[in-house]
Design goal:
Blueprint (H helix, E strand, L loop, with lengths): L21 E13 L4 E12 L2 E6 L6 E5 L8 E2 L3 E5 L2 E4 L9 E3 L4 E7 L4 H17 L3 H15 L20 E7 L2 E9 L3 E6 L9 E4 L3 E9 L2 E9 L4 E6 L2 H12 L10 H9 L5 H11 L45 H13 L14 H7 L5 H7 L14 H10 L48 H12 L2 H14 L7 H5 L21 H14 L57 E5 L7 E7 L4 E6 L3 E6 L4 E7 L5 E8 L3 E6 L4 E5 L4 E6 L6 E7 L4 E6 L3 E8 L2 E2 L5 E5 L4 E6 L5 E6 L3 E6 L4 E7 L7 E5 L2 E5 L3 E6 L2 E7 L7 E7 L3 E6 L3 E6 L4 E7 L16 E7 L2 E6 L4 E5 L1
Antiparallel strand pairs: 1-2, 1-9, 2-3, 3-4, 4-7, 5-6, 6-9, 7-8, 10-11, 10-16, 11-12, 12-13, 14-15, 15-16, 17-45, 18-19, 19-20, 20-21, 22-23, 23-24, 24-25, 26-27, 27-28, 28-29, 28-30, 31-32, 32-33, 33-34, 35-36, 36-37, 37-38, 39-40, 40-41, 41-42, 43-44, 44-45
Helix pairs in contact: 1-2, 4-5
Length: 892
């Protein structure tokens, strides 16, 4: 845990200007002479030297803290036995009573005399004089001032007397310069880590506590964070719920600290999104908790107002006296972003969008900005607004003062598109009720701003929060929330899908559009940070495909293994083999039962089909045979010799009965499996038939061949009309695979040169072109509105011409031979060498593997029974065929 010592200090870093740097403090006597009135006052206290101001904190608690801007100094800074200058503005901050706007004393003429009590007066004078010169020259003040202090900071050392026990051993030998991050403020200091405690020693004694301590055993979870557009942040959440956020000098230092802490004790890792998603879908966690987890995974933190957690605006009924959560009219359309809820306003945005040069955006403002968060929290955290607004509250008529009024503004104003924050769904009502008795001003209608005005259906602030939470957890929202997740965290966040969804924001708000690490100019760098802070930022994109709805799980659905906790903190891919777990329902530990049916064919099994009604498997092979296998008993029931040549592909013409089979003998065989006889043989090719697709509704068989022809044949009464042959296209290379959409409106044709072209089957015209350079197309597969293209070593997903996903297989694991998709979320790929990879399409990440991973052992030769060619997943059974004619059957 972190321990704090109470302090009588009234000073706060919130008194600094935005981006202002704190340098040092000193004890001093300060004499103030009012040159206009001839009055003077002498007080003891602390002088805080900052990059834009001198801040004087008198010892007497009843006296205000005073801010003196360097740019308001009207005379040279002199030095005798004290430092003196004259100034024309003094800002007073009263700390007795509730936080209040600062008092500006303008057009004054004060002489300020600072007499350091313990510091060398010349050293202090020279520092203040240099900072004033920098401010007067109007350069990049913060960067220039930081140079003055850099040598001092580099020489700073951790005070070893803070270490609690001699038995503690350092986990990292070197001290580290870090910043502790809190909303709108940063504290520089030194981090020192032992095997028991994380020590943070601030450079400046802003409070009486000289060192902050975190007991490592009290850490619950850690998150790597992107701070100021750089991957340098680390957020630590304690078991007590307290959050501490640090930013490091660079990513390497952050990774080093993360690694040693993960390696020290069993710390809960960033829980797998796969698990969290499963828990949400199955109703084991609430909508609120799921959204909080998504925010955490999306780099959102309450310690960083530029990336504060974002929640959806839910309710649109603010007229009724009672809230009806069973009426869909009560709720906002979660399929649309805020900016698209008002159609008239949306058309204005679209008109501007069409006239705009690239990079285009619909909305110039964002749904989550520091200003929005500060506006919501002004009653709870007034210091945020006072800092951001230079010691003032916003104008009374612009403050957050009415739930209904704020909603109307969001629905109609082109500059207000804000979503909500988590505080709208928890019990603490202090952001709605003016419990601090803040003086927030008087509106133009002469009404004083106090508590937030509530809807008619809420009798109190707590009642409003309770009903808002009930709305969030309602059936309507539960059934629609995945659409909003698609907009904020998912595949509609950016790219072509964001355009279709009217969800395009300023390009600077998206992760990765600005590379601060490559900016050499400090002014440009600081300007980019300020711009991002003003615009707001989109969360990290978590999902590349459609998010599944809640309650979408069905009995028997499988979940792939994830790592909830990292024993001894080895954060690495966990091998999943047939002796262990591959999939699990979280509450069960069902293991795969691995069975082998050897030498079903004499050699390579080239394709397979399941007979849906009979639980039978049909395989064809390079030996020219067709085999029928009982999946329950795992025995070969029938064996038919179809051709002397290799059989290459098979499709169903009549369910469970008649099939079209391609052959290396340049033929198509129509085969009746019930009678074990050939119905027809089609010889219309000059080389091997490589792929077949049957469009059942259109009664059309599409064929691809190594003779570079793409043809179509009409079919009737389960036969191919040979005289109906039409060439769709003459291909430039040998065709390797053809796939069709479920509605048969489109086919995808891949070839040996790595090219895939989609063709509209209504007019047989080419649509989109895709390519995997240098690789043969092994397979293509339509998935929802996207296309998966499989090469020898990589798998890519495209949508509307844009790439969504990209998975790669290590070359040592062999060439990809087949892929399948399970439950719209998981992609399984097998290779010729005997490796099976499991990927999450939702997270675009690898989850694990089956059998052997050859990536670190290139010379290892795989088991011949497990050199895979094809696979299929049916009824809790994963079937993999091999090059030596064997079947691997994994049942769970």
């Amino acid at each position: 845990m972190i321990t704090f010592t109470s302090s009588k200090s009234r000073f706060s870093l919130y008194y600094l200007e935005e981006s202002e740097k704190y340098l040092q403090d000193l004890s001093a006597k300060v004499r103030q002479i009012n040159m206009l009135k001839g009055e003077e006052r002498l007080e003891r206290g602390k002088v805080h030297i900052c990059s834009r101001t001198l801040i004087f904190e008198p010892e007497k608690q009843e006296l205000p803290i005073q801010k003196l801007f360097y740019r308001m100094i009207t005379t040279p800074i002199k030095q005798t036995n004290f430092i003196s200058f004259r100034i024309k503005r003094i800002i007073e901050i009263f700390t007795q009573g509730p936080p209040s706007p600062y008092i500006y004393q303008d057009d004054v003429d004060f002489e300020i005399q600072i007499e350091p009590l313990f510091d060398n007066v010349k050293v202090v004078h020279d520092l203040i004089e240099k900072i004033q010169q920098i401010n007067q020259q109007k350069k990049d003040v913060e960067s220039e001032v930081e140079k003055l202090d850099s040598e001092k900071l580099q020489k700073a050392r951790f005070n070893m007397s803070f270490v609690e026990s001699v038995s503690e051993k350092p986990l990292i030998q070197k001290e580290m310069l870090v910043r502790r991050i809190m909303p709108l403020i940063q504290t520089k200091g030194i981090m020192y880590i032992t095997n028991k405690i994380i020590y943070f020693q601030p450079f400046f004694k802003i409070t009486l506590k000289p060192c902050k301590k975190i007991v490592i055993e009290q850490i619950k979870v850690m998150y790597k964070r992107r701070f100021e557009l750089l991957d340098i942040g680390l957020e630590i959440i304690l078991k007590s719920g307290k959050t501490i956020y640090y930013a490091f000098e660079n990513q390497e230092r952050m990774e080093e600290v993360y690694k040693v802490l993960i390696g020290k004790v069993t710390i809960e890792a960033e829980t797998s999104l796969e698990k969290i998603q499963y828990l949400w879908q199955s109703g084991q966690i609430s909508n609120f908790e799921y959204l909080m987890r998504l925010n955490q995974a999306g780099n959102r933190s309450s310690s960083d107002l530029t990336q504060y957690p974002v929640f959806p605006l839910i309710i649109v009924d603010y007229e009724s006296s009672e809230l009806n959560l069973n009426d869909s009219a009560t709720f906002r359309d979660l399929k649309k972003p805020i900016g698209a809820l008002n159609e008239k306003r949306l058309q204005e945005f679209k008109k501007r969008y069409e006239e705009m040069p690239p990079p285009k955006f619909l909305y110039g403002t964002h749904y989550s900005t520091p200003g929005y968060v500060i506006g919501y929290l002004v009653r709870q955290k007034p210091q945020y607004m006072l800092k951001l607004q230079s010691g003032k509250f916003d104008k009374p008529d612009r403050l957050f003062k009415s739930i209904k009024g704020d909603f109307k503004n969001v629905m109609n104003n082109t500059t207000s598109l804000k979503e909500l924050i988590p505080e709208f769904f928890i019990e603490d009502d202090s952001f709605l009720v003016n419990t601090l008795n803040l003086d927030l001003g008087v509106r133009q209608n002469q009404k004083k701003v106090g508590d937030v005005k509530l809807p008619k259906w809420a009798k109190s602030a707590k009642e409003y929060l309770r009903l808002n939470r009930l709305a969030l957890e309602s059936d309507y929202v539960s059934n629609e929330l995945h659409h909003w997740i698609d907009l904020i965290f998912g595949y509609k966040q950016k790219g072509p899908h964001s355009v279709e969804a009217n969800n395009v924001f300023h390009y600077l708000t998206y992760e990765g559009t600005v590379q601060l690490s490559q900016m050499q100019d400090p002014i440009e760098r600081q300007a980019s940070i300020c711009q991002i802070n003003e615009f707001g930022q989109c969360p990290k994109q978590l999902f590349k495909i459609q998010h599944p709805p809640k309650c979408a799980l069905r009995a028997g659905q499988i979940m792939y293994k994830f790592v909830e906790q990292i024993p001894k903190q080895k954060q690495e891919e966990v091998p999943i083999n047939v002796d262990g777990l591959m999939w699990e329902n979280l509450d069960k530990k069902n293991q795969f039962r691995h069975k082998m049916l050897q030498k079903v064919h004499k050699t390579n099994i080239t394709d397979l089909i399941v007979l849906e009604k009979k639980n039978l498997l049909v395989t064809i092979g390079q030996d020219g045979f067709l085999k029928v296998i009982d999946l329950k008993e795992l025995i070969v029931l029938k064996s038919f010799k179809v051709d002397e040549f290799c059989l290459s592909c098979i499709v169903t013409l009549k369910q469970d009965e008649i099939f079209a089979i391609g052959s290396w003998g340049s033929q198509i065989h129509v085969f009746n499996i019930n009678y074990g006889s050939k119905v027809q043989m089609v010889q219309r090719f000059n080389n091997s038939v490589s792929s077949l697709v049957y469009l059942m509704k259109k009664k059309i068989l599409v064929t691809g061949s190594w003779d570079c022809s793409l043809k179509r044949f009409e079919c009737s009464e389960n036969q191919i009309k040979q005289d109906s042959e039409e060439i769709i296209d003459d291909w430039e290379a040998q065709i390797t695979h053809i796939a069709a959409t479920e509605d048969e409106s489109m086919i995808a044709v891949g070839d040996i040169d790595g090219r895939v072209i989609t063709i509209n089957t209504n007019n047989w015209t080419q649509q989109q072109h895709y390519e995997i350079n240098g690789e043969k197309i092994v397979k293509s597969l339509f998935f929802r509105a996207s296309l998966l293209v499989v090469g020898d070593a990589q798998i890519k997903m495209f949508s509307n011409g844009s790439q969504l996903l990209d998975f790669k297989i290590d070359k040592n694991n062999g060439l990809i031979t087949d892929i399948i998709i399970d439950h719209d979320k998981y992609l399984i790929a097998c290779t010729k060498k005997g490796y099976v990879a499991v990927f999450s399409m939702v997270l675009e990440s690898k989850l694990g593997y089956l059998f052997t991973d050859f990536s670190g052992q290139a010379d290892l030769i795989g088991n011949q029974d497990q050199q895979f060619t094809k696979m299929i997943l049916r009824n809790k059974t994963l079937i993999l065929t091999s090059q030596n004619g064997s079947l691997n059957v994994l049942q769970y």
